[in-house]
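Data deposition worksheet. Section B asks for the primary sequence of the deposited chain exactly as it was used as input, without tags or linkers unless they were present during the calculation. Section C holds the resulting structure in token form. Section D is free text for depositor observations; keep each observation to a single sentence. Incomplete worksheets are returned to the depositor.
Section A, Depositor: J.P.
Section B:
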Amino acid sequence: MVALLWMIYLMGATVVMFSTMSRAHTISSGITRPAARTMLILIVIGFCVLYPMLRLSQRHPTSGNVWFALRDAFVLFVPLQAVLWPQVSAILASWSFAVIAGVSLFFGCWMILIAGMLALAMRSIAYNDNAVNRGVWIILFLAIVLAAPAAGLLGDITPPAPIDQPRIGWLLSPLTGVLELVRDREQLGVSTKIYPQQIRMMLAIGCVGLALLLIARALEVAHARVRA
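Section C:
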């Protein structure tokens, strides 16, 4: 069911991208890239907000939630590639293979983090199923998406970076992170660019997600032994 809904959502995000481009009289990077960025933002909202809200509205068993969350992450990640990699085309965003690979890695790492949080959330709801607990977890998912952008509005989370330097702090949110990865860098002679510092930050995010998954799995094993 989630796979079907996710593919429909991706199709909708793609339709939004093309509808934005259809209003233009000519096709140029000034039109296609903003449209592609809009699509990426919709994708982030889909897997970081709407998908967790869907899962948190359901009932869950007290065990097996780690594998359940990992399976969902795989189901979200694979179809995403079908709308992501065509952006290397000259008639679309014309981003390089390295940039698309970087965005794919970024999404994958954040999906692992979301999976780790969701595994803990499903376990918590299984033992304490009430509206308040579900609401708290939904707020936590919203916080990881909106906290960094909100901090940027109140006061920059990182000092202003020149066009040839990455804004690493932006990767602390999937919303601002994807915009940083596809930031226009035409002044450098490239459409955009992936930096080693960005890759290290992505891997750190993925490691946090793996740590959460391990914690959730350890709690499941400990509970199973206590019951035995």
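Section D:
The chain has seven helices and no strands.
The CA atoms of residues 62 and 86 lie 40 Å apart.
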